[in-house]
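User: Can you recover a sequence for this backbone? Please restate the input before giving your answer.

Assistant: Of course. Working from this structure:
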C-alpha cells in the first residue's frame, strides 16, 4: 500500500520506519522543516533503538520520504495515519487542536469520487466521542453528508513503549480497530497482516477508551509498587524479594482476575488486609495514597451499584436479592457486599427478600454469626427458598453472583452486579 503518516514524532516516525520495512511505501508529513530534512537525508529525528537501521533500509529501497505539505499526494494514498499530539490543556483536558487541524488538511486534500475510500486511521490518544463529535464533522463539512463514500475513518490506538518501540510495533500486545459500524476494515487488516496479536474490532468509543484504561492502570501499578517499596524500606525488608514473589504468581496477581469490572470486593481477607496495610504505612510514615483510596473507592462502588439498580423503583417495591454471601456456594457473610446492599435496600424502604441456598442462620458461628446479625439483624425473616424466589412477584431481582443462573427468572427484571457489560 501507499501510506501517509501525519506527525513524525516518536509514534509517527517509528511507525513510518516499521511500515516501510513491511514493504509499503510511506510518505511522512510534518510541520517541522528540519525534521523532514533529516529524514530525507537518512538521519533519524529521534533517538530510538532500531529506527536508524530501518530508516537506512527504507531510504535505500525508495520506500520512505518526508514532506511538510501534502499537496495532491493523497490521490495516490491508500491509508493516512494520524499521529499528532494531544497535549494537556491547563485544566487537564486534551488539546485537540492538532487533531482538528490535521483532519481539515486531510479532508481538504481528499478528492470525492475516489475509486476506493481513503482510510484515515487515528493513532493519537483521543477522548471517547472524539471520532464522532470532532473528526467526523470536519470531514462532513468538507465532503458533505456522504463523506463515508470518500473516506473510511478508523481509530487504531498504538501500544509502543519508548526504547522498545520497534519491537513493540512488530510484537504488539493487541491490535484494536474502532470503526463507525464496529465492523472490520480491509485496509487495516492488510496493514497488520504480518503481525501476530489478538485483534479487537469495536465501535469508536471502546477503542478510544482503551488507551486511557491501559495507561491509567500502568500508572496505578507504578504508584502502588512505589508505595509498597516505601513500606519495605521503612520496615527494613527487601522490596526486590517481595516483588519477585509477587510477580511469580501468574494465576492471581498477574492475570485477568480482579480486573474485570463488576461487584465490589469484600470477604474476610481483602478489606481487613487493606486496613492493616494502611495502618502499617501510616504508623511508619510511608504515605500510601493509592492504598488509602481503595476502601473509599470500594464504598463508592457499592453506592453506585445500589443507585443504578434502583433508579426506577419507588420505596415499597418488592426486591429479591439473589446471593448474600461473599461468594456463591459459601455462607461467609463477613464484609460481603451483599450484606451492605441488603442493609441499604432496607434503609431505602424497599420490601426486601433474599435467596441464598447455602445460608442457614442457625449454622452461622463465630465472627460470621456476629457480623451477620450486627449488620443485618432481620436476616432470618428475609430468606426465601427457591420456590418462592421463582414464583413470587418481584419488581426487581438483583443478582450479586452467578446463583441467578440456577433460577428461572423468565419475565423478571434482573440486574446483575457481578458484571458490568
Amino acid at each position: 500500500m501507499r501510506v501517509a503518516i501525519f506527525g513524525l514524532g516518536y509514534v509517527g516516525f517509528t511507525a513510518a520506519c516499521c511500515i516501510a520495512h513491511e514493504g509499503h511505501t510511506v510518505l511522512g508529513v510534518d510541520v517541522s522543516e528540519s525534521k523532514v530534512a533529516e529524514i530525507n537525508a537518512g538521519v533519524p529525528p529521534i533517538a530510538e533503538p532500531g529506527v536508524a537501521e530501518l530508516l537506512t533500509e527504507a531510504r535505500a529501497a525508495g520506500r520512505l520520504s518526508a514532506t511538510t505539505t501534502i499537496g495532491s499526494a493523497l490521490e495516490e494514498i491508500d491509508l493516512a495515519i494520524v499521529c499528532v499530539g494531544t497535549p494537556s490543556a491547563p485544566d487537564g483536558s486534551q488539546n485537540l487542536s492538532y487533531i482538528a487541524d490535521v483532519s481539515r488538511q486531510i479532508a481538504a486534500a481528499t478528492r470525492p469520487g475516489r475509486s476506493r475510500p481513503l482510510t484515515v486511521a487515528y493513532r493519537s490518544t483521543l477522548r471517547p466521542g472524539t471520532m464522532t463529535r470532532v473528526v467526523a464533522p470536519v470531514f462532513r463539512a468538507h465532503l458533505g453528508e456522504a463523506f463515508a463514500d470518500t473516506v473510511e475513518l478508523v481509530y487504531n490506538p498504538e501500544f509502543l513503549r519508548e526504547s522498545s518501540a520497534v519491537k513493540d510495533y512488530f510484537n504488539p500486545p493487541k491490535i484494536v480497530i474502532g470503526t463507525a459500524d464496529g465492523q472490520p476494515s480491509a485496509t487495516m487488516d492488510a496493514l497488520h497482516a504480518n503481525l501476530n496479536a489478538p485483534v479487537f474490532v469495536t465501535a469508536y468509543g471502546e477503542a478510544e477508551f482503551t488507551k486511557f484504561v491501559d495507561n491509567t492502570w500502568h500508572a496505578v501499578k507504578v504508584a502502588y509498587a512505589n508505595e509498597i517499596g516505601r513500606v519495605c524500606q521503612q520496615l527494613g525488608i527487601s522490596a526486590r524479594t517481595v516483588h519477585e514473589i509477587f510477580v511469580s504468581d501468574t494465576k492471581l496477581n498477574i492475570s485477568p482476575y480482579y480486573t474485570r469490572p463488576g461487584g465490589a470486593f469484600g470477604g474476610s481477607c481483602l478489606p481487613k488486609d487493606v486496613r492493616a496495610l494502611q495502618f502499617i504505612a501510616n504508623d511508619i510514615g510511608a504515605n500510601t495514597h493509592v492504598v488509602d483510596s481503595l476502601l473509599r473507592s470500594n464504598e463508592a462502588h457499592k453506592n453506585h451499584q445500589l443507585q443504578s439498580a434502583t433508579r426506577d423503583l419507588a420505596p415499597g417495591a418488592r426486591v429479591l436479592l439473589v446471593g448474600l454471601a461473599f461468594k456463591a456456594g459459601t455462607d461467609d457473610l463477613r464484609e460481603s457486599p451483599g450484606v451492605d446492599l441488603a442493609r441499604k435496600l432496607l434503609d431505602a424502604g424497599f420490601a426486601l427478600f433474599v435467596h441464598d441456598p447455602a445460608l442457614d442462620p442457625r449454622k452461622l458461628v463465630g465472627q460470621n454469626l456476629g457480623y451477620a446479625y450486627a449488620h443485618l439483624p432481620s436476616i432470618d425473616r428475609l430468606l426465601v427458598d427457591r420456590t418462592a424466589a421463582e414464583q413470587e412477584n418481584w419488581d426487581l431481582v438483583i443478582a450479586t453472583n452467578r446463583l441467578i443462573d440456577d433460577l428461572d427468572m423468565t419475565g423478571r427484571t434482573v440486574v446483575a452486579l457481578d458484571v458490568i457489560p
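That completes the design. The CA atoms of residues 105 and 377 lie 67 Å apart.
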